[in-house]
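Design job #97: recover the sequence.
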């Protein structure tokens, strides 16, 4: 595809699609995009790149006719732009196809995959390689704060990429990561997720087995050691496999883990020998595991323990991962990208470490395609019960889920109440802000758990708290 041609992305505000838009612009293409709705951080990110975003979807967004259209995996038949592309026979590709054809070819892709932790682990691994002076390229499903971006296209031979098991496009229902041709892979976890496309855990495991089957004999697989599902996926690997975790059998074993306010330390033992003492500012056992996985992969590429230590000491985080969005009069508002009960539990446990002794409120929106369904009702109750008080919003776009399959918010609330927790259902962001703003007091920590825009609650709640303070000061 010649330089300066026009590429249009349908569904451009998805994290990966926005990143691809930036990568294409960096390569010299004229880039436009469209989406049903744009919200931070990706809307801000696209604006910073001067990539125009048209809302809503419409045929007019494709005039003048682009040379190529990239169709996001959330786009299905009936979308007016997709129908126009098909009618007019405009060349189209999926995001993974473009990545493979224009960015991964000729590189050494290191694919970070798993149900949980892949965004943070990918960001950590890329920062370790960057600290080592290897100038890696990066594509991650969030804004990596060390790079202030979700992507980087650099001179080095390594391309560190988050491997998503979600499907590729309406015309390709296989997982995205099967297009990435890994030279090495990291597997953090394998659990049931994406209930809209996978019928059960067996189907999820099949996807990860196919990824493992792509790693060449000379490659490396780094995998979590405490999951029967992960072990099953590794069973037929042709390459070297190294495991990380807490058990004695782990090749990379975590020991001496200590949590302090603003500081986490631990030791990593490799094959029984002390390899490094590591430290960073993040909290949570799951982040220690993520960092240890990244360290193990980095070691496989010859990066020294001292470099890994320096990288983790300077590692920031990823936006929407326990991100402090506001602090108003002693009330701390946290944004976390909640997509699964296991991730919710990990986030709430980490907040208990960061804010010991403080009242913790969980404000949860069932928004992911899995959490909108009733497959995890019991697990959700257990996870959310780690907070002191829970507010559950109505199921996002509930009408799109058949009632028999839909999550019962009333059931979640009832289960929490039975477990001794204060819990209630409120329909949306506006109702939640109206109800809880007067009740919040200095010292409270509010964890907003959603993988979407949640009706702008991240801005509405701080604004309401600030206006409450202004009224009090005038009284």
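Job complete. Output follows.
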């Amino acid at each position: 595809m010649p330089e300066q041609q026009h590429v249009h992305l349908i569904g451009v505000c998805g994290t990966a699609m926005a990143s691809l838009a930036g990568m294409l612009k960096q390569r010299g293409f004229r880039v436009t995009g469209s989406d049903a709705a744009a919200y931070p951080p990706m809307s801000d990110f696209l604006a910073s790149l001067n990539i125009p975003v048209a809302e809503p979807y419409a045929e007019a967004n494709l005039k003048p006719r682009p040379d190529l259209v990239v169709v996001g995996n959330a786009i299905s038949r009936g979308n007016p732009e997709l129908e126009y592309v098909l009618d007019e026979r405009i060349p189209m590709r999926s995001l993974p196809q473009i990545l493979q054809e224009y960015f991964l070819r000729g590189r050494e892709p290191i694919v970070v995959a798993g149900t949980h932790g892949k965004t943070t682990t990918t960001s950590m691994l890329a920062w370790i390689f960057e600290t080592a002076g290897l100038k890696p390229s990066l594509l991650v499903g969030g804004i990596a704060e060390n790079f202030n971006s979700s992507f980087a296209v650099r001179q080095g031979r390594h391309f560190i990429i988050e491997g998503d098991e979600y499907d590729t496009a309406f015309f390709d229902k296989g997982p995205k990561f099967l297009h990435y041709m890994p030279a090495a892979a990291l597997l953090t976890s394998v659990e049931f997720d994406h209930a809209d496309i996978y019928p059960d855990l067996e189907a999820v495991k099949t996807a990860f087995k196919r990824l493992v089957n792509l790693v060449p004999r000379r490659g490396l697989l780094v995998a979590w050691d405490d999951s029967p599902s992960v072990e099953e996926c590794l069973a037929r690997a042709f390459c070297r496999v190294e495991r990380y975790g807490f058990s004695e059998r782990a090749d990379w074993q975590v020991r001496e883990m200590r949590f302090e306010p603003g500081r986490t330390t631990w030791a990593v033992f490799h094959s029984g020998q002390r390899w490094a003492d590591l430290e960073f500012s993040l909290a949570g056992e799951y982040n220690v595991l993520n960092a240890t996985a990244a360290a193990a992969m980095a070691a496989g590429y010859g990066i020294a323990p001292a470099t890994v230590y320096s990288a983790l000491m300077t590692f920031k985080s990823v936006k929407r991962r326990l991100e402090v969005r506001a602090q108003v009069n002693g009330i701390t508002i946290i944004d976390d990208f909640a997509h699964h009960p296991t991730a919710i539990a990990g986030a709430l446990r980490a907040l208990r470490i960061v804010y010991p002794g403080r009242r913790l409120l969980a404000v949860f929106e069932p928004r992911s395609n899995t959490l909108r369904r009733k497959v995890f009702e019991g697990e959700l109750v257990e996870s959310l019960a780690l907070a002191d008080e829970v507010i559950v919003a109505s199921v996002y776009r509930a009408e799109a889920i058949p009632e028999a399959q839909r999550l019962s918010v009333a059931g979640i609330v009832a289960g929490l109440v039975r477990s001794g927790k204060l819990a209630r259902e409120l329909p949306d962001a506006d109702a939640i802000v109206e109800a809880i703003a007067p009740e919040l007091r200095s010292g409270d920590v509010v964890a907003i758990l959603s993988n979407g825009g949640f009706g702008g609650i991240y801005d509405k709640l701080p604004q309401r708290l600030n206006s409450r303070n202004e009224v009090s000061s005038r009284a």
